[in-house]
């Protein structure tokens, strides 16, 4: 399916988010939209998906001008969007999340047999195998994303918009997603891929459009794109390599976790035997994609989430069972 936007403008108060933007997605291609945060990428996609109204400009589907007033209209036209934050109901199983709002029915009741058969067909066709009865909230983030994709495929989406899809994935999950996208493309789907990670663009895109400050800087094929050229188009200048010289000498241990484990709100393990030390004069970085325990780690440290195993100490004093108020008194 071909999707194009012509002369799209969008303002939020005094801020111009999009300034006469042209964008074209060809049938059966992966077209990447790149730019710095605030360049207008997500705003443009929200307009194409009916979540925002453009102030000016037109949208065409297969050469026909259309008016996309809401996501339901976009869905009927064959346009679907995988959001950064999934639109799933954690307490429901995979099957019900996929068909919710478009349920097959028999005599007014959900036809589970038909729904299950359609889900299994789509899962096998696109390599998105899932247990239909698994509760979504208990799935890893990468599998929850599969549920989002299956929701769109179940609704016969021909254009799939991926908005920063690897922001919540591990590197191995990202590679799996790329395989899924290639499979979708091979079966005739058209993909818009939003990112600012240039290595992903070089790995997955057929064409690239660069946005900067709400304006299209250039559209080019992947063969003509290099990370250096894309960087220059994104920021408007050459970037010097970043160098940092570390000359601090960390001191005594102020905070220490030993073998800390804790459960998530869904009752599944969020932290498993986590150990770390924070010393005086030190910045300790905790890295990980969303949903891998960062929030729970912060909560057990400040005392608003109970610890199932392990100990927490401040300046050598055990505060594992101490209240948040007591931890604050000790300097946290």
Task: Give the helix/strand layout.
Elements: E1 3-12, E2 15-25, E3 30-34, H1 41-48, E4 56-61, E5 64-66, H2 71-76, E6 79-82, H3 94-99, E7 105-106, E8 109-110, H4 112-126, H5 141-154, E9 159-163, H6 171-186, E10 190-195, H7 198-204, E11 207-212, E12 215-221, H8 227-235, E13 253-263, E14 269-279, H9 294-302, E15 309-314, E16 317-318, H10 324-329
Parallel strand pairs: 3-10, 3-11, 6-9, 9-10
Antiparallel strand pairs: 1-2, 1-4, 4-5, 7-8, 11-12, 13-14, 13-15, 15-16
How would you portray this structure in words?
Strand 11 and strand 12 (215-221) form a beta hairpin. 31% of the residues are buried. The protein has 10 helices and 16 strands. Helix content is 29%, strand content 29%. It is an alpha/beta fold.
Question: Short summary of the structure?
Answer:
It is built from ten helices and 16 strands.
Descriptive key words:
332 residues; alpha/beta; four-stranded antiparallel β-sheet; 16 strands; 29% strand; globular
């Amino acid at each position: 399916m071909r999707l194009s936007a012509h002369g799209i403008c969008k303002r939020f108060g005094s801020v111009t988010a999009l300034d006469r933007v042209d964008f074209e997605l060809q049938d059966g291609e992966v077209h990447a939209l790149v730019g710095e945060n605030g360049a207008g990428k997500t705003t443009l996609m929200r307009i194409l998906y009916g979540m925002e109204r453009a102030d000016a400009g037109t949208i065409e589907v297969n050469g026909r001008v259309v008016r996309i007033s809401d996501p339901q209209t976009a869905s009927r036209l064959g346009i679907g969007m995988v959001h950064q934050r999934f639109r799933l109901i954690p307490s429901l199983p995979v099957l019900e999340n996929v068909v919710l709002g478009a349920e097959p029915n028999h005599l007014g009741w959900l036809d589970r047999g038909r729904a299950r058969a359609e889900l299994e067909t789509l899962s096998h066709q696109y390599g998105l195998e899932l247990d239909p009865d698994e509760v979504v909230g208990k799935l890893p983030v990468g599998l929850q994303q599969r549920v989002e994709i299956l929701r769109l495929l179940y609704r016969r989406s021909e254009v799939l918009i991926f908005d920063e899809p690897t922001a919540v994935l591990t590197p191995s999950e990202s590679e799996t997603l790329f395989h899924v996208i290639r499979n979708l493309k091979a079966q005739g789907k058209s993909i818009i891929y939003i990112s600012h990670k240039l290595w992903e663009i070089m790995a997955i895109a057929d064409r690239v459009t660069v946005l900067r400050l709400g304006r299209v800087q250039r559209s080019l094929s992947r063969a003509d794109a290099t990370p250096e050229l894309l960087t220059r188009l994104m920021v408007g200048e050459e970037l010097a390599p970043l160098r940092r010289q570390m000359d601090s000498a960390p001191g005594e241990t102020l905070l220490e976790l030993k073998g800390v484990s804790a459960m998530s709100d869904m009752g599944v393990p969020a932290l498993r035997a986590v150990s770390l030390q924070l010393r005086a004069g030190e910045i300790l970085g905790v890295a990980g994609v969303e949903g891998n325990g960062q929030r729970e780690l912060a909560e057990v440290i400040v005392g608003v989430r109970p610890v199932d195993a392990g100990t927490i100490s401040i300046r050598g004093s055990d505060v594992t069972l101490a209240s948040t108020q007591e931890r604050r008194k000790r300097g946290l």
